[in-house]
Amino acid sequence: MSETRVLVVDDSRMMRTLITSALEEIRNITVVGEADGADEAREKIAQLHPDVLTLDVEMPGMSGIAFLEEIMTTRPLPVIMFSTRTTEGTGDTAEAKRLGAIGCFPKPVGPPDMMKKVIEDVAKCIKTEREAELTKAAAAKDDGPVPPIDWNGRPLLIGCDSSGLDALKGFLTRLPDNCPPTLVALQNMDMGAIYALLGELSGKVKPALEIASDGTTLAQGKIYFSPGADKHVVLDTWPGGHCRLMERDPVGGVRPSASLLFASAAKAAGEEAVGVVFGTGGEDGERAASVLGEARSHAFNATDDGYRLKRGEAVQAVSASQLAIEVMRACGK
């Protein structure tokens, strides 16, 4: 994987040093510069052309949220937000994601284990975004739709967080109109963001798109999306299964949970299921791929260099440009 160049923006010199030192310990990530606010950041972006920006929410002068909006309007760039308040469910997080931030994280302060976990999650988010960019580049060479399949009866389950949306959209645009019944858990995405996603996909995706409801019968040629972040989505039985909505606390900080969805598919379909995790996924995404792979179903999840297919003890590398082809192959006779 090629080097990812990061610009760190924070009004605290100590925090800039902490974030920079931590990120530079991660392979293939290089911090190319630092800025103490929006004015200096504009200059550094023009000079250094970073691949990713980390941005503090609570900066003096122009706030991080206001600067994020400016960036997305004038010169779109992958941005990760840091704040004492950017935890799931806060207004800062919702607004940052609405504006286009690829990730929102608490500042890496506190006990060493907590700091390490935050930086590891940030590193995964950065690498996933970089992978999405490489996917787009590869798609320029191999972006054709996948031919119609002779469906083998397996359902397709997808888990996706905000950092994986670009990869998810590219994947869905390649699916044939007779794709397997597909149920998508969009982690922590509210209905406004989901409707915006469906609007963006309209006319670009061959299968029918639908918001799932409790009891929805899953049918071939349709892609069903979780209805907001208030409930989990699961598969009740297979074949002839339905989407079920569950009122339950978030799992690993996310709702709907990919791991709950994949576990329900493993229980309902056994070996006869296919799952894909887009984005960093966090602990929930890792559990999702693990539970489905251990059930000897096909489980695809993102890696630094593409994707990994796990089925039982068997593991196979899959390039980003080949993901749609391999997933449809797993769903075809």
UniProtKB/TrEMBL annotation:
Organism, as annotated: Qipengyuania pelagi
Q: Which residues form the CheB-type methylesterase domain?
A: 145-318
Tell me the keywords, alphabetical order. Chemotaxis, Cytoplasm, Hydrolase, Phosphoprotein
Query: What protein name is recorded for this chain?
Result: protein-glutamate methylesterase
Q: A cellular component term (GO) from this record?
A: cytoplasm
Q: Name the Enzyme Commission number(s) assigned to this protein.
A: 3.1.1.61
Task: Please list the GO biological process terms of this entry.
Answer: chemotaxis
Could you give a GO molecular-function term held by this entry? protein-glutamate methylesterase activity
